Amino acid sequence: MIFIDTGAFVARYRVSDDWHEQAVGGWRELDKSPQRIFTSDLIVAESLKLIHQYAGAGWAARVGRQFILSSELQILRPGQPEELQAINLIEKFADQGIGFVDCVSFVLMRQRRLTSIFGFDRHFEIAGFKLWPMETR
Question: What is the CATH architecture of 2-132?
Fold first, then answer.
């Protein structure tokens, strides 16, 4: 089981992204794997906003439908308890500048005992998660 972050979604579709090759390779591996994949509605919103900016409304709508209709991707929707836990984490990681969406992801991942995230944001390492796939830069 793995959680997908915004960077993995955006880099998959944006050829000029610094992480494009790693993202495409990671998606190829996931396509061959029976592993369950998760993300959150907040990640979907962030991803579609960025895809819209880079590729336009039509592309964002197409990708959004793929996300929502996917039988492989489980989109988690936090409630008030998860959001309040995330706000506590914002305070805990105040010196790291970690935002609300990442903190909600931390909470959702911990609830499901997920230890790996498909993404490139080092904030997840700070919170104790393993970035996958990771190339040293």
Answer: 3-Layer(aba) Sandwich (3.40)
